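Below is a filled-in request sheet from our internal design queue. Each sheet records the structural input a requester submitted and the sequence that came back. We keep these sheets so that new team members can see what a complete request looks like end to end.

REQUESTER: design group, bay 2
PRIORITY: normal
MODE: inverse folding
CHAIN LENGTH: 104
BACKBONE (tokenized):
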């Protein structure tokens, strides 16, 4: 599986998690987050392996120390993704390395 596919798979799983959440009075927040994550997953899946965003995520350690493991943004990245409310997909991908760097 390519890094782009691994990233897209991770984002789809997070979107499913948000869709499965039931909270009273969430005013559609979980659905909006899920849609934004699904949009980001489609975008991520279309990126070539040498795309600067994929390389930036790799440098941040999101694909393991050798760059060949499944996508894992760590706790700081997970927190960002769990609370993502929308925006352009590339904005989410750009924000992940910054969140990781700020947490260390």
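RETURNED SEQUENCE:
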């Amino acid at each position: 599986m390519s890094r782009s596919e691994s990233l897209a798979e991770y984002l789809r799983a997070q979107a499913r998690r948000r869709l499965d959440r039931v909270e009273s009075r969430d005013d559609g927040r979980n659905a909006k987050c899920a849609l934004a994550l699904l949009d980001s997953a489609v975008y991520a899946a279309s990126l070539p392996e040498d795309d600067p965003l994929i390389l930036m995520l790799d440098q941040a350690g999101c694909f393991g120390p050798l760059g060949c493991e499944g996508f894992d943004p760590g706790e700081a990245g997970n927190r960002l993704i769990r609370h993502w409310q929308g925006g352009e997909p590339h904005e989410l991908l750009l924000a992940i390395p910054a969140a990781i760097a700020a947490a260390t």
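SHEET NOTES:
- The chain has a mean pLDDT of 91.
- Residues 70 and 103 are 21 Å apart (CA to CA).
FILED BY: M.R.
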